Amino acid sequence: MKILQALQKKQTETSTAGRPADSLAHSGTAMRRADNIPPSIFANPDLKIGAPSPVTGNNPNSHFTEPVPNTVTLTEMEGLRHPEFASFEINPESVNPRLVAITQPNSAYCEEYRSLRTHILHKSQKQKLQSIVVASAGPSEGKSVTALNLAWLLAQTDGIKALIIDSDLRLPSLTEYLGIEAGVGLSHVLEGQTSLQDAIIRLDPGGLHLLPGGSTRSNVAEMLSGPKFKAILRDAREMFDYVIIDAPPLGIFTDAAVLINHADGALLVVRANQTRYKEIDRILENLPRERMLGAVLNQSEDVMNESYYNHIYYANA
Topology of 84-315 in CATH? Predict the structure, then answer.
């Protein structure tokens, strides 16, 4: 009996030794490769351990048929959020004197614009208020001056990046108020002649950014109503905290009404002793009331004495 068992054991060892290591069958207990031979895939000289390389369907040994999408580095992402713009040095002696935020920053008139800025900032804490249209009932009421003073002071607020857009393409005027010249602007971006980033300029030392109007156009309502302007405003929102839009007069053109429907809010500038209440009521009837932030009374005769105001202001500072 012992001789028979020994013979069977000998036959088993002989048959096992004759089989290759990869053909060993698994039994109830774990089996190991006899010679610790790695799988054949590791013998491929093209195999690399680490981060995968881009693979395409052109590789016959690849199991992928679609190319790996391009990745964006952190540096590139930062460039998208904070692009570089051409800069213009603003000379206070060359700008329009009514831009008191630049020419008379310590005056009582400038303080009135600071109060308007404070109102906007407080309003922004309660509702979404990133893009604001500044319009008027008619021409020569001070909407462009109000828009520029407000935007300049917003840009000087700590931690805020502000952009002002000259959308009055029939009569763009912001560069003239600032005493500068710009080759391209909003009209060129709308027509695809330049990019938004190339059209925006930085105004130093205030830090305000400006998208000039560019060349004059007659089909303004059609240009501002299309998807191109929506895309411009969307990109501007991503780059800036506040976007101030200087709009054409509401009582003459429909452009401003189109812009207000795109924006988060609107200010109506009225000139004292010029704008009629009846005209204002007619204009407000066609505007979304929930977007109207209020009215700015311009050139009022009821102006506080500047020396008295400064005395009270600095005494309580």
Answer: Rossmann fold (3.40.50)
